[in-house]
Amino acid sequence: MPLGSRFDIFSTTSNQIMPKKKKTGASVGHIEGPATKTAKSHHTGPACLSSDDPAGLFQSLIHPMGQEEFFRDVWEKRPLHLQRSDPANSSYYQSLFQLSDMKALCAQGLEYGTDLNVCRCVEGKKKVLNKVGRVNHNVLSKDFHQKKATIQFHQPQRFKDELWRIQEKLECFFGTLVGSNVYMTPQESQGLPPHYDDVEVFILQLEGEKRWRLYSPTVPLAREYGLEPEHRIGTPTHDIILKAGDLLYFPRGTIHQAETPAGVDHSTHLTLSTYQNMSWGNLLLDVFPSMLFDTMQSDISLRQGMPRRHLLGSGGDLDTGKRMADMLRGLGDRLESGAVAPNSTEMRRDFVTSRLPPYIQNEEDIAPAGKIPALKDSVRLRFRDHIVITVEPNQERTDEATELVVFVLHSLRNQREVHMIGRSDPEEEDEVSQGLRFPVSHLKALRQLQEVEELTVAELELPSDEAKVNMALALWTESLLEVCETTI
Question: What is the average pLDDT value for the chain, to the nearest integer?
């Protein structure tokens, strides 16, 4: 279904999945289902995010809907509202973050702008009420209660271990960054005007209730944040009340606004966001320059000169366009045949150096593990989902012919404290980047380790036993490899 057409919404209670649509003239938050049979779900139990397996954790996030159905019918297509009345689920959600947590957090030296914003929607516009410097909890509390301002707390996974665990597993599941914000809004107040985001959004209602109004996108699958005035967005496609324990998902580009209803002391919700700059267009922007450069080495037509006076705009535009179209088709043919390979180096590097480290609270758990690998030992990768392999030019030999090398990058020693916030000093960012460099001849052996659960060092596809042991030792020293325990 095109994004510009009517959205469907699913409301689920107990172990049922039922498509729902808004009834004309219904009261706020009322959702009436069509006269169709209810689809039974085979999932049981509360939707607490308790699994240590990335796929299992995501399954619990969208419980009781299955992953296949979600990615086929919902992802990037329409909103999903999961109503959950299970007290255990509501209690678990509340444990992730509460308004009362802000007092202790302010004592840790939070800064306005960096760690939180204080804002309110006034006459359709966002009014920022930030002070300067450190956040004082008494002042923050007055702004919240007396000025009815929303507290937008940035990236709480930096402070909350359970959110660190959840988001690290979701980054493994999606293969891209997962950020979060907590929004705390007093009753009869709204923090932000109608807008749309450039991320896929999962809303977890932690405390109280919040009224959400969703509208058809003016920019489907938007690639940047945007505001929309009330007169342009029309009537809501959905008008719902999220209660503690509920989940709401909507695709990037979905216009939305939310307010805490009268009679509700306050609302606290967590926004999990992902898939920013993860479109096919972003991939093409990443891979095309290097792919074209590599093809120029072997295709003389790409090295021939442009027409004279082309840069002066002296005619020939139609011929130039046709010539470029032919070249692009030729490049497409080479790509399809495997003659050239797409290598998303920058996207991979950005992900692995910016993401959360593994959810490990003891430093010794990231140290090299067990015995040093020998030729006869069976070995396997550690922290497999935190490793990225890229093939890049060797930047250390700029005065010679281009030489390709293999980088094994990882996020084991990334710092959770700067996740999705970044560092003020770019040089400091480079200092914490982790990884190993190997000759391009080691690529096959590295791919072996990625593709199998375990193998012996002797089975690595390298020309000599010395090279096999040296590569295994380098990976072991970097905590990326371990010797498998033998069982008798």
Answer: 86
